[in-house]
Amino acid sequence: MSESAIRLQQHSDELISDDVKEIISYRPHWIIRKGNVLFFVILLSLLALTWFIKYPDIVRASARLVALNAPKLIESKAEGKLVKLFVENEQQVIKGQHLAYIESTAEYSEVMKLQSWVHEIIMVTQENKYDALAKQPPRLLNLGELQPAYQDCQNQILQTQQVLASGYFQKKRIGLQKDLQYLAILKNNTYRQQKLLQQDQQLQQKEFEAYESLARDKVIAPLELNQYKTKLIGKEQSLKQMNSEITNSDMATHSKEKEILDLQKEILDQKQIFHSALLNLKSEIEKWIQHYVLIASENGKLLFTSSLQENEMVSQSQGLFYIEPHQTKVYAELMVPQKGLGKISQQQKVLIKVESYPSTEFGHLIGSIDYVSNMPSRKDSFLVKVNLPKGLRTNYNKTIFFRNHLAAQAEIITDDRKLFDRFMGQLRQVWQRS
To answer: What is the three-class DSSP state of 388?
Structure first.
């Protein structure tokens, strides 16, 4: 290097301060040196993620759960003490089965005996087997409000026994039927005598005509002819008397038949009175059972609404049991507003959050759209029906107990779009506005 160059370099070093030299000699951190490249790589990674990450379009609507064959609530019809429970929680029951009964003035066991007896009597009387009435009805003293109807039925049984069994009416009917038989025999005899008299009268007529011819020829005297005429008149009088006897026999028969008809009417009237008393007793028993006995309305699984115990007080119209049928189809009804309705179609996924069961604890139900109404309701919203393939089992694998018309909130996933598409769509809108 030349001497002048060396002097120029020394002069430059003297002009630059130590602080400036330190700044010039400092080597930046790699983040600063490679920052732009790193930022560009991160930006490309985020942009690539938007291609894989999807975010759904959601239409929100109010919903309610509905069932075609919903669980039936069994309510108490009377206020009082729950005397006896015949079932346990989650037990299978059949339609008509007695579940429990509430305290009343009548004994449940005696009412059941009376109902069984009434059913038996109705069956045998329908077959016209009134001999069963000879058997004494059960002796029941604790029927409470049913006692008057039972006593009236007992009184009618006694009167019906007199009419239909071996009482006065039956004996009188037998006597009248025998009188008719005797009158029929007498009438037959009278008919035979009448025929004989008719033959005798015809012979007498021929004999008189012969003597009358002889009298005209003056073979016999007129006085002798009068004797034969007198015999003929006597035969005719006897024949008329025989006809009168037949008429009297018919009148006597008619009178006996009328007596039998009157007697049969009295028997039918007594039967009707007895049947009315019996059916009235049956009706009173059924009213008592409907009022004091809790009965299964159909086949299914019984569920207690609370922890029930015997001798527990219950109020009127208090729900005590639910019966869950074996086949229950539950679905959801959504009322969707017009906003976003055009994006809704069948088979779209729906998330249903039941208000009575918080979604943070129980999860949500998953369904799919089955039907979208074309006509709006009065509230200017549209009905959408949603099937629930998993029933009332949530995504947390918990089962929701169904109560009809449970309120819920629904989210309809109309389009599961990528973030990249959404971002590009926003850019497209900005570009079109500009």
So the answer is: coil
One domain, residues 127 and 216:
yes
Is the pLDDT at 397 greater than 80? The verdict is: yes
Distances (CA, A) of 162 to 124, 130, 167, 378, 417: 18, 11, 4, 70, 91
What is the DSSP secondary structure assignment for residue 182, as one 8-state letter?
Answer: H
pLDDT at residue number 169: 63
Is residue 351 in a domain? yes
For the ranges 123-127, 148-152, 279-283, the lowest mean pLDDT is seen at 123-127
CA–chain centroid gap for 370, Å, is: 28
Structural domain count, the chain: 3
Determine, yes or no, domain membership for 75. Answer: no
User: Are the C-beta atoms of residues 161 and 251 closer than 8 Å to each other?
Assistant: no
- Considering the domain architecture, whether residues 247 and 112 belong to the same structural domain is answered as yes
Average pLDDT over the chain, rounded to an integer: 77
In this structure, the answer to whether residues 143 and 271 fall within a common structural domain is yes
CB atoms within 10 A of CB 302: 19
Position 344 scores a pLDDT of 81
Question: How far apart are the two ends of the chain, measured CA to CA in Å?
Answer: 64
42/407 Cα distance (integer angstroms): 46
- The strand pair at 382-387 and 319-324 is best described as unpaired
Domain that holds residue 21: 3-52
| C-beta neighbour count of 150 within 10 angstroms | 22
- Residue 73: pLDDT band by 50, 70, 90 thresholds? confident
